[in-house]
Amino acid sequence: MQNSSEPGRKHKLIEYANGPSLEEINGTVEVPKGKGFWKTLFAYSGPGALVAVGYMDPGNWSTSITGGQNFQYLLMSIILISSLIAMLLQNMAAKLGIVTRMDLAQAIRARTSKTLGIILWIMTEFAIMATDIAEVIGAAIALYLLFHIPLVIAVFITVFDVLLLLLLTKIGFRKIEAIVVALILVILLVFVYQVALSDPDWGGIISGLVPSAKTVATHPTVAGMTPLSGALGIIGATVMPHNLYLHSAISQTRKIDHNDEEDVATAVKFSAWDSNIQLSFAFVVNSLLLIMGVAVFKSGVVKDPSFFGLFKALSDTSMLSNGVLIAVAKSGILSILFAVALLASGQNSTITGTLTGQVIMEGFIHMRMPLWARRLVTRLISVIPVLFCVWMTRNLPAVDEHEALNNLMNNSQVFLAFALPFSMLPLLMMTNSEVEMGKRFKNSMWVKVCGWVFVIGLTYLNMLGLPDAFAGFLGDGASASQISTAHIFAYVTIVLVLALLAWCTYDLYRGNQRLAKAHRDHAEEA
């Protein structure tokens, strides 16, 4: 493998990369040997926080709050199920990175053809850009709400978060993890404070955690949403493909002895603890968002679920549900805290989105760029549709501009539905394989069964939502024939996605067979 981190070596803007995942930080964090549980857990804590950020980004906010507004605590169980699925998948991703010493992109590329690798890279790049669009919108709106900066200027300001990234790359990965944890705590404390003031129905919350047939029913329809569409929205905004690539890479930042199986087992164990604890925080945040929708506002009063509408509702005493909230809202603190949490969420994505982009570029096409350049390119591409949306609605009433931005954010998430199966399926196949993982670290039977149920189920639900997602691009004034055409395009896309999945499965199976043969030949020679 080529080492690009040799001292004195002059780096180019774009260069070949076929070394360890995120080579600059791979194996750089020291971990204690033979110490107590809590000291060891602290040393391994951090990567889970970077992953958890993706489960509480601005894309989650409107789906959870609107779901609470429309169906009370009914969809709490969907947030719980999504979080449990996330925990299982993220543990697989971390284990893949630690045991094989490859991130998910590298592992897929090593087991599939070059052509398929390029297709999957392009698809995953679109998914990351779609996620970035949500972050641009969230951060720009937060700047507008907090400092009254015009939206066009606020969108451009989000490009300069590349300077923040440049600063972070100088301070060490451990400090980056600490900053991310601090921002997560800001988000958590804001919503704990607001929900605590609202005095929610805890009995209703607990009963909502139990799944029922009503959770995925196609009726009633409230404000254009059914329980099923609300559930699909929460699932789609929660489980994201880029997190699996990211976790498989940053789980390798700890310095361990790969020749010592016990040391590897310790890393797998404590990475799982770290991931599950951090994703539990993400579950709490998403639950608090849904509870806000139920308990903070009067039932059905929030007609505008965009960030603008929620900010305004938190300062409008006629929309709030009790006297304590009304008294606090008069000071403006509720709405300001909401905007601060939104900005913190957007800044967290600056770090994780860039690292993920580097992982997939190096893994799929063996190309490396400096992190600042990678961030600048993806952010400049992501701001184009946002600026276009703001420009097209500049002469319309403010409510139309807000709705257009909200629709853009929601519609951009459709790319996640395409990309998710192509990260979940390879991850499951490779971690199920004894050839890839070894007898000790391959998935147990219950993990295999749950994994296949989740992968097939999530793929089905994502494809199920595509016809309506395609129709959503047409806006509210679309004719029946236009909607019908959009549905036809969606069904053609579904067929293409399934065909590509079959190709990917076949290539991965053949790659596994080649690896098994190589192992047998090596054993015979030895």
UniProtKB/TrEMBL annotation:
Keywords attached to this entry: Membrane, Transmembrane, Transmembrane helix, Transport
Subcellular location as annotated: Membrane
InterPro entries per UniProt: NRAMP_fam
Topology versus the membrane: Multi-pass membrane protein
Highest rank taxon of the organism: Bacteria
Transmembrane regions: 71-94, 115-134, 140-166, 178-196, 228-246, 279-299, 319-344, 376-394, 414-433, 445-466, 486-509
Pfam families, A to Z: Nramp
NCBIfam families: nramp, Nramp_1, PRK00701.1
Protein name: Nramp family divalent metal transporter
Species name: Lacticaseibacillus pabuli
